[in-house]
């Protein structure tokens, strides 16, 4: 019998707290790259999303040559 394993989920960058991770997941975001389609103000309004998490995510997008949608 073979078992299927799910593809590994992308982990959020170090420092993004669990409440922020849950907020992103409940809003349908599963990867950092998806955040390039989101407005920073919309993410900031999510319950559990703090300024520190936004700073970390902004920097991660920048390192990938991307940014939040304007």
Can you offer a commentary on this structure?
- With 70 residues, the protein is mainly alpha-helical.
- It contains three helices and no strands.
Summarize the structure in short.
With 70 residues, the chain is an all-alpha fold. The protein has helices at 18-26, 40-44, 51-63.
Note the quaternary state here: single chain
| Terminal Cα span | 50 Å
Structural class: mainly alpha
What percentage of the residues does DSSP assign to strands (E)?
Answer: under 5%
E-strand count? 0
| Biggest sheet overview | none
Poorly predicted residue ranges: none
Gyration radius over CA: 13 Å
Summary tags:
single chain; 70 residues; mainly alpha
List the topology elements:
Elements: H1 18-26, H2 40-44, H3 51-63
